[in-house]
Structure formats: structure tokens, C-alpha cells
Design goal:
The chain is α+β, with helices and mostly antiparallel strands. It is built from four helices and four strands; from the N terminus they run E-H-H-E-E-H-E-H.
């Protein structure tokens, strides 16, 4: 499994949905987990992105499929980034 950072930006439709049903955030996380991707942490954020989510996924293809699935709904735009720990980064440089 590998770690990914998902930066999420709500669309106007997504903001309407959350205003009316804030629990939708947790429902989407359950849908992500049903795709075989574990949601490790999630933060609401101020600035250009509305949510920062740490994910544990099998591979890039799993994250790609999740991104397309969620993005096709028209409620969120995603940027996903593969990540490694600082310790693993240091090991890779040695």
C-alpha cells in the first residue's frame, strides 16, 4: 500500500450538498473505502482547497479510478499526489 494526498475543491453543487447534508463527507469516505482505499486522515482547510485527505491505496490506478469516479459526480475537483515519509525519502537518497 502507498500513501497519497488528495486535495479537494468543492464545486458550487458540492457546497450546496454539504450545506444541506454535512454528514455527506463521511458517506463519501465510506464510498472511498468500499473502493479499497483507506482514508487515514481528513482535514477541512481554508484557502484554495476545501479538504486535505490522506489515503492509503494499493497503487496509482486505484487512486486514478477513485478520482475519476468522484470527479464525474460534478461536486468536487481533486488533485492527488503520491507521498512518501521523510524517513523513506532519506533512505532513497542514500
Amino acid at each position: 500500500m502507498a500513501i497519497y494526498i488528495a486535495l479537494s475543491k468543492l464545486t458550487d453543487e458540492g457546497r450546496k450538498t454539504l450545506k444541506n447534508r454535512p454528514e455527506r463527507i463521511k458517506e463519501v469516505n465510506k464510498e472511498i473505502e468500499a473502493m479499497g482505499i483507506k482514508v487515514l486522515e481528513q482535514y477541512a482547510a481554508l484557502g484554495p482547497y476545501d479538504f486535505i485527505t490522506l489515503l492509503d491505496a494499493a497503487n496509482n490506478e486505484a487512486v486514478l479510478k477513485m478520482s475519476v469516479d468522484l470527479g464525474s459526480r460534478g461536486t468536487v475537483q481533486l488533485m492527488t499526489l503520491p507521498a512518501i515519509t521523510a524517513d523513506d525519502f532519506i533512505k532513497a537518497l542514500k
